[in-house]
Fold:
Amino acid sequence: MERSFGVSWDRVQPSAWSLADEKAVLDHQSVLYVLSPPMTPDNAVTVSTAALLVVDQLIKAGATAVKGESAGVAHGLARWNELVLQAGAALKSNDDIALRRICRLAFTKRPLAAEVYLESVGFHLVGLPEVYIPKSRGTDGEVSALMDTVADEIARNGLEPTLKARGARLFFDTDFAEDDFKFNPYGIVKLAS
Structure:
């Protein structure tokens, strides 16, 4: 479990976890897996929002650590609570774009290093394609921020206008099988160098 969380901790958000969170993983006594219903473009954000609310209830019931297995991302309890509060505010204000972004930040992993690109995984959990950005475009932090910007543009403006504005292309080549948790049926947006 320690190794699984070790590779999954969110490395983009400052203070996404603490030493206390790492200790909680080391000292854990049990594990609970919660499976979501199938996701479609129409229900992905709703299902991810429900999953975030389940995380909130699990923490209130005494969970000491939480990891989203579909993309392999873990946050500390304080960060999960922060995400839950942000989601609640987005729900109250009926801000679907903000809600999609919060769920994406909660349940997706980025940046993952590959040979040429820094990659995202899990954007399908909010009905979006993955975003791959050439390593040459900046530091991990700069590329992660650009990934988030591109994902926000797709959510706000649509896929085709974003591809055109960014000079990007949509691909469907992936290392994941169709029945893999990490498979994204919406494809991969690849930005040019």
Summary: The radius of gyration is 16 Å. The chain has a mean pLDDT of 93.
